[in-house]
């Protein structure tokens, strides 16, 4: 288990460089998260999670993933998914495209390759994962942050991050100037900024009028 507080060096670094992000970190407070163990089963399960949850709410994604886990005998492992047909996977509420992607993961990656992802650089992980049909940059970045615990990953195309960024700074993340002026301040701890933004969204911090309270304006 990893635990980050507003006083932790990484969080303090972000707060010193970015006033608004610092106030958000202080508002949320301690951030604790589990660091996944290194194993092929964990890697596959986390990849499957990202594939399933993409473009869905967390609630819907977790419901569908729970159905698939039950179908797999308790864990969405490579071996279990490999035994399922596309129609069986789709029966869990998964689209045909995502079902084919999950099936394709079992064909593209061996257990040895999945476990070996921990030894690769960020760019090498992205190259390896996106070699699988249906897996894009977003899935690779989610894997880097939430499975491999890499410290400096910034998924600029992520819808949740764009939503929180717009709420916090009053400008869209797609704005090139905003990216240059704000996001450049987060390196080399961009992943922690992403984690806090996700936590803010999941805790409902983005409620109407909450920005003034968080930022103490």
In short:
The protein is mainly α and 217 residues long. The protein has helices spanning 9-17, 19-28, 40-53, 58-71, 78-82, 86-90, 96-108, 111-116, 122-129, 137-146, 159-169, 176-181, 190-202, 210-215; strands spanning 2-4, 31-33. The mean pLDDT is 91.
Structural class by sheet pairing and helices: mainly alpha
Strand-and-helix sequence, N→C? EHHEHHHHHHHHHHHH
Radius of gyration: 18 Å
Total count of strands: 2
Number of DSSP helices?
Answer: 14
Characterise this structure.
This protein is mainly alpha-helical. It is built from 14 helices and two strands, in the order βααβαααααααααααα. A two-stranded antiparallel sheet has the order 1-2. Helix 1 (9-17) packs across helix 2, helix 3 packs across helix 10 and helix 11 packs across helix 13 (190-202). It starts with a strand and ends with a helix. The mean pLDDT is 91.
Task: Detail the topology: elements first, then pairings.
Blueprint: E1 2-4, H1 9-17, H2 19-28, E2 31-33, H3 40-53, H4 58-71, H5 78-82, H6 86-90, H7 96-108, H8 111-116, H9 122-129, H10 137-146, H11 159-169, H12 176-181, H13 190-202, H14 210-215
Antiparallel strand pairs: 1-2
Helix pairs in contact: 1-2, 2-13, 3-4, 3-7, 3-10, 9-10, 11-13
């Amino acid at each position: 288990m990893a635990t980050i507080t507003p006083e932790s060096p990484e969080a303090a670094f972000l707060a010193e460089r970015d006033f608004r992000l610092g106030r958000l970190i202080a508002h949320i407070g301690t951030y604790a998260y589990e660091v996944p163990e290194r194993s092929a089963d964990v890697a596959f399960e986390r990849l499957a999670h990202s594939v399933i949850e993409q473009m869905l709410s967390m609630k819907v994604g977790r419901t569908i993933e729970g159905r698939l886990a039950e179908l797999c005998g308790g864990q969405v492992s490579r071996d279990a998914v490999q035994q399922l047909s596309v129609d069986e996977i789709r029966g869990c509420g998964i689209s045909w495209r995502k079902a084919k992607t999950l099936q394709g993961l079992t064909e593209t990656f061996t257990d040895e390759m999945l476990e070996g992802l921990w030894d690769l650089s960020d760019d090498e992980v992205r190259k390896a994962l996106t070699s699988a049909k249906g897996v894009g940059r977003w899935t690779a970045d989610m894997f880097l942050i939430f499975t491999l615990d890499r410290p400096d990953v910034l998924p600029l195309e992520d819808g949740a991050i764009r939503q929180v960024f717009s709420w916090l700074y009053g400008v869209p993340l797609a704005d090139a100037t905003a990216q240059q002026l704000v996001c450049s301040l987060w390196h080399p701890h961009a992943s922690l900024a992403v984690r806090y933004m996700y936590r803010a969204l999941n805790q409902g911090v983005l409620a109407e009028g909450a920005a003034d309270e968080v930022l103490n304006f």
